[in-house]
Amino acid sequence: MAGAVVVTLVYLIGLGIVYPALPFQALALGASPIQVSLILVTDTAMVLLLAPALGRLSDRFGRRGVTCLALATAPFAYLMLAYADSLLWLFAARALAGVSNAAIPVIQALMADSTCDRRRVWGMANVNSAFAIAFIIGPLLGREWLLGPEGTDYRAGALGAAGFAVLAVILAAALLREARRPAPVQRLVVHDPASVIAAPLCLGPIAVMAVLAFAYASMETTLGLWSARILAWGAADVALAFMCAGIAALFSLWVLIPVLCHRLGEEVVAAGAALSMGLGMSLFVVWPSDLAIAIALMLLGGGIATSLSCLQALLSKAAPPSIQGTAMGLNHAVLSAARIVGPVWGGFALGSLGSGWPYLSGAALALMALLMTIWIYRPRPQTAGR
Questions:
Q1: What CATH number is associated with residue 244?
Q2: What pLDDT score was predicted for residue 194?
Q3: What tens digit of pLDDT does each residue of 272-286 get?
Q4: Of the candidates 33, 41, 30, 87, the residue with the CA atom closest to the CA atom of residue 225
């Protein structure tokens, strides 16, 4: 469904504008490294709390209305960010932004509703491609226009993001269409969420995604501080680095996934993506230079986008159709927990253990995710008589 991709893209461009500058805005307000990490995950904590509930509501009442209501909070969040003059206001703005971010799993459920099993991974890849495009366009707008020549006009950046948030709400109301009838109450009672995540082919991909999200989040939220310390980068350089990750993610989603998943299957491609992330994390430790980190971010951007798309498709196929929203909401809650703990670990490791520790641990976790994927989707012997 093209409308879901367009709405996601427009909404995320706003996030792409402000996200690279958030650590520097927090530092300008007197934040410590651990406070920077906490500010960056405040919206994720709200997603952790709200995503399962919004997913379940969308199963009951429909995806479109729930998505529009959640996205409608985003313009106010960015206005608060534009005029934040203290760390408390910065935390409050990020918390409100988390309400709108919780709409993403509902949009993914809408995509699952409108695609068959064979094309499910491409549907998820199309939604995830909005993240990649947004983190090309958003940082570019911030770097070249909104943030000013010094990269410090945080108010202009947040106001620009608010404009994109308003447009996303309008597009959601105009373009989104229900692809299925809301499930009746009786079906929601039959399919208890606990039974969904207890099934091995549901619990498995959720666990792998959580491990990879933890590793990526610890890198993502420490990149600004690490690069300033090791490579003398500023906000504009970090924005350019995120653009490299976005370009690689887009290439993986639009070129590699359609070809490789058709030939090898989502399971094999997900394992290869975890390996790619392990290699990218290792470069921070063994080759800390501008060129190496550019390569590392392309490996990481392509790896996380590919792995999440494949594993989300596998999860969606394993979950009952009547509770796609519930399954995606629960998955996002687990991912949100990983994205909260990951940056906290990254900030602690960078500040207390040494510059390479967030990335050394990330490489180890990517290897763990690779082994988990191989074990979950290993060939199983056929039952006798079948």
A1: 1.20.1250.20
A2: 61
A3: 999 999 999 999 999
A4: 33
